[in-house]
Amino acid sequence: MCNGVWIKTYGCQMNDYDSGKIMSLLGRHNFHKVDSCQDESCGVVIFNTCHIRDKADQKLFSDIGRLKEIREKRLKKERPFVIVVTGCVAQALGVEITRRSANVDVVIGIQSAHKLPEAIEAVQQYQRSVKKYSPIISIGECNDEKFKCFSTVGASHLGPCAFVTVQEGCKNFCSYCVVPKTRGTEYSRPLAGIKEEVELLIKNGIKEITLGGQNVNAYEGVDENGGKFDLVDLIEEVAGYPEILRIRFLSSHPCNMSKRIIEAFGRIPSLMPALHLPVQAGSDRILRMMNRHYDRSIYLDIITKLRDICPEIALSSDFIVGFPGESDDDFAATLDLAKRVRYAKSYYFKFSPRPNTPAENMPDQIPEEVKEKRLEILQELLDSQQQEFNSETVGSVQSVLFERIGRHDGQIIGRTPYNQPVYVEAEAGIIGSERQVHITDLDKHSLGGILV
Ligand code: SF4
Fold first, then answer.
1. Residue 333 pLDDT
2. Residue 99 burial (10 A CB sphere; 0-12, 13-18, 19+)
3. Could you tell me if 266 and 157 lie in one domain?
4. For the segment 230-241, what is each residue's pLDDT rounded down to a tens digit?
5. For residue 437, what is the domain's CATH number?
6. 178 ligand 1 Cβ < 6 A
7. Range of the domain at 32
8. CA distances (Å), origin 418, targets 44, 172, 344, 426
9. Tally of structural domains, the chain
10. pLDDT digit string (tens) for 85-110?
11. Most ligand 1 atoms within 8 A of CB, residue of 253, 276, 292, 351 to mutate
12. Is there a domain that residue 365 lies in?
């Protein structure tokens, strides 16, 4: 009756991945997912938090505050109602969370998320017996224990594509980013655990794997004999499973874009010709202030080498506009770099200071209206590049891996090797298969086609 779990996930794909794993893990302990905290059977609310976005902790505490009434009502009826905070904010603030809100029962850092079932069950017992209890706090360092536990959970809900975290944390300390503080320094999972997870995913019908990490191309794991194992070794290992048709990796740092990784795009057929390589800015001065450890010529050189090896590669990037001190010339350099690269897709943001980062207190913060204007200009350029890239596909035949049912009746959605969403009219039975599609239509963000 009280084992319904509602998870609210904030932030990035890594958090979505962790939430899916947490839910599957709790499913093995007789908990089930509910769609709202108002559901009669909901007895556990989990906030899987993200520290990247602005004012993350304010949003969290206001969300927790909204549960006060429902929690009190349930507890009066001696029905457990456990509030859990996990993810990056839990990792960063720890015990501070329970000091700021008496309604929080469990704070679990993302590296200890495998301990959630026992922590929730312990609080439920205290609440049922109306015993006084202290909140449970567990903030661990990154190690393979979490992954070992997560890798054994079912994955049948995933469709044909899965995200496998192989690396966590970062040691680059970009001046605007909190990840090195929240997720900790770089940690690479050993090969054995990754293989176990991949094999389980294959049993569940997975055809495409994205190897993920905050800085995935810095992956440096160990094989079963303790030997060094890098990202290319890992891609080759996954490519060795004939069931896996497609491999991608996300997210990469330009400084770790080794010759070996670049060459892999020309050599490993199941490594898809698409790469997300965030540049953030096109001005050397701003890149230095961002502490990105490369300049525009290094970045453009990587792009040239990638295109020499794999001419059709689809490149995507993240951009930040309005970084402190960004002049008109700096912004022009960003536009110029984008024009040179011609991206297939991009994500763009206005700079907004994150607490406890060097950029927060840098001088010459850019006025909001200037950021807005620059974002508008950059958006227009990058959106037109995406349209251009997609329009070049119209008229061609593309191999599409079908993933899910679309929003309209009879519509099935898949993706090309270049990560473009494609919809066709077809039976749901094609989900999970790779089919040839004649691309006939171009929409704002997707392509339409007909099965060949
Ligand atoms: S590379 Fe920079 S932006 Fe990316 S996670 Fe590391 S510190 Fe953050």
1. 98
2. exposed
3. yes
4. 999 999 999 999
5. 2.40.50.140
6. no
7. 4-138
8. 40, 28, 9, 22
9. 3
10. 998 888 778 888 988 999 999 999 87
11. 253
12. no
